[in-house]
Amino acid sequence: GTLIPPVPLANPENQFRMDYIKSIAPLSDFDYTQEFFEHAKKLWDDEGVKACFERSNEYQLIDCAQYFLERIDSVSLVDYTPTDQDLLRCRVLTSGIFETRFQVDKVNFHMFDVGGQRDERRKWIQCFNDVTAIIFVVACSSYNMVIREDNNTNRLRESLDLFKSIWNNRWLRTISIILFLNKQDMLAEKVLAGKSKIEDYFPEYVRYTVPDDATPDAGEDPKVTRAKFFIRDEFLRISTASGDGRHYCYPHFTCAVDTENIRRVFNDCR
């Protein structure tokens, strides 16, 4: 997408660096040279680029961009070896269906990973034969973002609509859903920064109060607690409206790059 109004580079001398990056961006087969890393580092230091990054909810930017741009010096080393955290931060759009088997405390998991983009959803139904449960992953930090397919549809509302269509699907009415309310770390960052208010995208948030039985994490800011339980309850409103006692929704607050958090969640899912 294009920012309106556009953000100029703070240093006009970086224009040739931007032109270089734009020239290689469409290439599907590209070797990351030292020249690339040098240009990327200089651009990331440009205040105009930083201002553009601050408005990243207005266009499509991969979540891990800041993480790796801040680590250009280590990533650009000839003998660079990714850390576990580097690998966890990598993001690739899921296209097609990927089958994975793994074990957590002697319990076998057989998982099918399917893409969430609109044009991927028609491939799903073949995965749902004889499944024990559906894991539905929500990016909670996406409340102020738009989907990749168009610039008018809010990502979190799209997730709610998709959840509703799966929950009410007549073929899935006996299959429970494990709801991963993911990217809690990024949600907290956005809420505490105060630049993008949830009520600007979900007006009903103004009237929302945290349930009495809600348990915040230790030391958690009340604003973060309210935000995450609001999102949880938006999904639970759908599941409690038409569950019919035949399938259930089990919500979990998750942070996929926090291995201990995910380990606890999968232990709960057994």
Describe the structure.
- With 270 residues, this protein is α/β, with parallel strands linked by helices.
- It has 2 domains: 78 residues, GI Alpha 1, domain 2-like; 142 residues, Rossmann fold (3-Layer(aba) Sandwich), CATH 3.40.50.300.
- It is built from 10 helices and 5 strands.
- The strands form 2 sheets. The protein has a 3-stranded parallel beta sheet, covered by helices on one side.
- The longest helix is centred in the last third of the chain and has 20 residues.
- The radius of gyration is 21 Å and the shape is globular.
Give the end-to-end Cα distance, rounded to a whole number of Å: 42 Å
| Counted beta strands | 5
Give the overall form.
globular
Strand content: 5-15%
CATH superfamily of the largest domain: P-loop containing nucleotide triphosphate hydrolases
In angstroms, what is the radius of gyration? 21 Å
Give the count of structural domains.
Answer: 2
Give the second-level CATH assignment, the architecture of the largest domain.
3-Layer(aba) Sandwich
What is the name of the CATH class of the largest domain? Alpha Beta
Indicate the CATH topology of the largest domain.
Rossmann fold
Proportion of residues in helical segments: 25-40%
- With helices defined by DSSP (H or I, 4 residues minimum), what is the helix count? 10
Largest sheet: 3 strands, parallel
Mean pLDDT: 88
Q: Give the structural class.
A: alpha/beta
H/E topology pattern: HHHHHHEEEHEHHEH
- Main β-sheet, spatial strand arrangement: 3-4-5
Spans of at least 5 consecutive residues whose pLDDT stays below 50 are none
